[in-house]
Amino acid sequence: MKKKNILFVVSLVLMTSLAIAGFSSGESTNNAGLTIGDTAAEINLLNVDGNMVSYDDYPDAEGFIVIFTCNTCPYAVASEDRIIALDAEFKDKGYPVIAINPNNPAVQPDDTFELMQAKAEEKGFTFPYLYDKTNTVYAQYGATKTPHVYLLENTDDGRVVRYIGAIDDNVRSASAVKERFLANAVYELLDGKEVTVKETRAIGCSVKQ
Amino acid sequence: MKLIIFTCIFAVLLSCGNSTTENPPDESVAEVVETTGEKSETLSEMRHGIQVYNFAGLDEALLQHKNDTTYVINFWATWCKPCVKEMPYFEKLGKTYAEEKVKVVFVSLDFPDRLEPLVVPFIKKNKLESEVVLLDDDDANYWIPKVSDKWQGAIPATLIYKADDRAFFERSFTYEELEKEVQSILNKS
């Protein structure tokens, strides 16, 4: 009985100190939203084709490459062709791309739904490009910039976050990329392995709300 | 209380941002290749009248001073609307605190091929008096945590330091907020 009490107190102290440690680095944006190992909730967002899209619309998927991106951020634009290539590479392997635009068009007029449709048409997007109309999904994920990638794996416990960060190590030029962080992570999941590089950082345009 | 503070900070962060410059996706490849990798090699050269560094060069030239100057290092880009909005506050800070050895440096994260067409005209148009340098280093995953463990990669971001006293902010500033943070570093010594 006593042992149990001590254990309880110890774990309470531990948890409290962890929580404080988390909050005291408050200038960083990492404390809100999903972290590695968390489960991502279902989405239901309007696609540029006029239909609503949910993860459950993909019964055969093994997971999802969720990318928060937008119409005009130089980093997002530089990544467009790479995002299309990722969808081509991984959709048939069970990891389709789901792109979500987190920006509020009232703040960022380049990101209206109509301009998203034009972008998807012009670039020939092969994946859903979703409008986060209620501005809730990006906040749930903790996406702070575009592009910002979350790799989800479907498990019995739900859609588990396995990787967060950049597409690769060179946002400016696809041909100069040395490490494909995201692709490497998907291949590790496909091989039934644990993802080695779980988080990376990249410069991005901050989400506009 | 911490939660409330944190929520406020988060709200401020989310209120940031805007990108107005449309850039073509095909960035100049040749220039990029020569500057990637070689993390130990230092790049420091003048291009179009602006000092250009890779991260090793920037770190050596601007991020590790151990003297009695307080350095205010602001990471920005011409396409980043909240960055552009807060630049006058940094300019004012640099002038107001010049005698107290406060030095403001703007580190542009614009793509290097935007240096001549966008960054140089921007400096002239806005009559920036603080030093402006450009960071030409693609491997952001390598150098972002070296600037600060707290930095997730969004801009504007600002490092304020004097010798070993360092503070990092991934957020926008008003003049008053910026002045407060600089004073807190100045008052430590």
Describe the structure.
The complex is a heterodimer of chains A (209) and B (189). Chain A has 209 residues and is of the alpha+beta class. Helices cover 32% and strands 20% of the residues of chain A. An 8-stranded mixed sheet of chain A has the order 1-9-8-4-5-6-2-3. In chain A, strands 7-10 form a two-stranded antiparallel sheet. The longest helix of chain A is centred in the N-terminal third of the chain and has 23 residues, at 2-24. Chain A is globular. In chain B, 40% of the residues lie in helices and 21% in strands. Chain B has a 7-stranded mixed sheet with strand order 1-2-5-4-3-7-8. In chain B, strand 7 and strand 8 form a beta hairpin. Chain B is globular and about 40 Å long. At the A-B interface, helix 1, helix 2 and strand 10 of A face helix 1, helix 2, helix 6 and strand 6 of B.
Q: Find the structural class of chain B using helix and strand composition.
A: alpha/beta
Secondary-structure element pattern of chain B, one letter each:
HHEEHEHEHEHEEEH
Uncertain runs of chain B: 4-38
The main pleated sheet of chain B reads as: 7 strands, mixed
Radius of gyration of chain B using CA atoms only: 16 Å
Number of helices of chain B: 7
Q: In total, how many beta strands of chain A?
A: 10
User: Radius of gyration of chain A in whole Å, from Cα?
Assistant: 18 Å
Q: What is the quaternary state of this protein?
A: heterodimer
Number of helices of chain A: 5
Number of strands of chain B: 8
Reported for the largest beta sheet of chain A, the result is: 8 strands, mixed
The proportion of residues in beta strands of chain A is: 15-25%
Helical proportion of chain A, percent range: 25-40%
Structural class of chain A: alpha+beta
The SSE order of chain A reads: HEEEEHEHEHEEEHE
Provide a concise account of the structure shown.
Chain A contains five helices and ten strands, in the order H-E-E-E-E-H-E-H-E-H-E-E-E-H-E. Chain A has helices spanning 2-24, 74-90, 113-123, 137-141, 181-190; strands spanning 39-40, 45-47, 52-53, 63-68, 97-101, 129-131, 145-146, 148-155, 158-165, 204-206.
